[in-house]
Write a structure and sequence with these properties.
3-stranded antiparallel beta sheet, 6-stranded mixed beta sheet, elongated, about 35% helix, TATA-Binding Protein, Molybdenum Cofactor Biosythetic Enzyme, Chain A, alpha/beta, homodimer, 2 domains
């Protein structure tokens, strides 16, 4: 399963907010063996949201959109997603019912639009807030507030699964450039993928579909390198 | 000036690394009156990097690419950028000279490829590391290690400028949904853009090109709302 994340919000583009939602979802997906192949941050504009979601939908198995839900003029995600899949937004009876049963709001008191979802969408309840999410044609629309996003994702997490990937990390106290031949040999000897990330030490990540192979590869590499 | 950021790295997609580089660059650009209109994170794959950079170049005034510089097999950014602008990568004499003068490395000791840049690029020295960056046709290629990226950006920061944007933030202790009419009135009365961000309080950001207008708008709004 290969997916894309679309994060909506001017505040992320301007650097006011760090995109921790994408990192959190990336971790969740990786644990489930799902590959996040693309993360895109777009402004609060219907056309940009629609274009990104539409393109991602054509290319990936699912798209997770976060942010831009709610009642204010800059909450445009539902409109953008609806445009991407070619339907209008309209009041969703499940959203109305859920808000009336599970929140302190009466439907009549809610700002118009709060219960509007793309026509034909499945409503995703918001266990930690008011504005509901939605799923339509493999596009999952979640809130931008991290606590709400995480709580809503937990309810649909089972819909994301793939081949589990096993990983071992070997930290090395040598210059990255000195490791090239050994990394090349590692990749030749074992059926694994290897990433190396320089910092205070060089962090070498070894991943693969077979746990024994990954373990053997990590042991082989560890024996040939200098530990910090 | 409207720009796009392209962040390269599997480790960002998988959530191992939070994309703080994009947030830092977003802040820097916003301060300079430059609009970041798009942030894309792509895997360590030449084709993905090339496609994103190529598309962004067609649409924006400049593109800043971070990550994937260096000597290992997963450092593919220079190749991707070169493909995006239709040139080969080749050894760059300025990069060779700079490495020999400013680092502890002799050129002969460097891993082949470290001084290879897209043909015709301007070399951007790395004041905090070894691998040089590059600029070609408005595509700026910077390292992924934050300290190196920031030091390299400082040297080209003057090349990014736009209309300054003034901003005031008003925190409000009312539900976001209760503010809608007042936000609508604010947007009608003053030539400003308004963003509202719910959290413990609702943070309302008021921005515009004229500082006096933004100040007046913020005062008007502050008087009409409940402070925390």
């Amino acid at each position: 399963m290969r997916i894309a994340l679309v994060s909506v919000g001017d505040e992320i583009l301007s650097g006011d907010t760090v995109n921790t939602n994408a990192a959190w979802l990336g971790e969740q997906m990786t644990e489930r063996g799902v590959a996040v192949e693309r993360v895109v941050v777009v402004p609060d504009r219907v056309a940009d949201i629609a274009r990104e979601v539409n393109e991602a939908l054509a290319e990936y198995d699912a798209v997770v959109v976060t942010g831009g839900l709610g009642p204010t003029h800059d909450d445009l995600t539902m409109e953008g997603v609806a445009a991407a899949v070619g339907v209008p937004v309209e009041e969703h009876p499940d959203a109305v019912a859920w808000v009336e049963e599970h929140t302190d709001y009466e439907h009549a008191d809610l700002v118009p639009g709060t219960t509007h979802l793309p026509k034909g969408a499945r409503m995703l309840p918001n266990p930690a807030g008011v504005a509901p999410g939605a799923e339509i044609e493999g596009v999952y629309v979640l809130p931008g507030v991290p606590g709400e996003m995480e709580a809503m994702f937990e309810r649909v997490a089972d819909e994301f699964s793939g081949e589990p990937l096993f990983r071992r990390v070997v930290d090395v106290d040598e210059p990255e450039s000195a490791l090239l031949d050994r990394i090349a040999e590692l990749r030749e000897e074992f059926d694994v993928s290897v990433g190396s990330y320089p910092g205070d030490v060089v962090r070498v990540k070894i991943e693969g579909a077979d746990e024994t192979t990954v373990e053997e590869a990590a042991n082989w590499f560890r024996e040939k390198t200098v530990a910090p």
